[in-house]
TrEMBL record:
Keywords: Signal. It holds the Pfam family DUF1573. It comes from the Bacteria. It comes from Spirosoma endophyticum. This is DUF1573 domain-containing protein.
Amino acid sequence: MKRILFFASLVLLTASVAMTNATALFNWKTTTHDFGRIPQGKPVTVEFTFSNKGEAPLLVSTAKGSCGCTGVDWPKAAVLPGQSGKIKATFNAAAVGAFSKTVTVESNAEGGSQTLSFKGEVVKEAVAAQ
């Protein structure tokens, strides 16, 4: 009887360890984007698409832009293994000139935080002839 209990305990312990080793894993389609030249005052949005190639649900806890000129939206629900999600970054394009921005994604995925980046140049729109 003691052997049966010992082996049953061993099986349960092994199963619980195996379950805790399951991890979530980002598989990004791309982590960079170049907008090129964009008109001043017209916000632009990039979508960074990913899939969860891990064995555990992927939970994005936060995604932050490198400045207040970038709004970020991310999945609030868990992305199950094999499923896809998107991180959307919207740049306000208020100031003329070249820009290079990042989005830092915090999650339970293997490898810690992820950094996404985008760049471009905001140009003054030509004034229409009157």
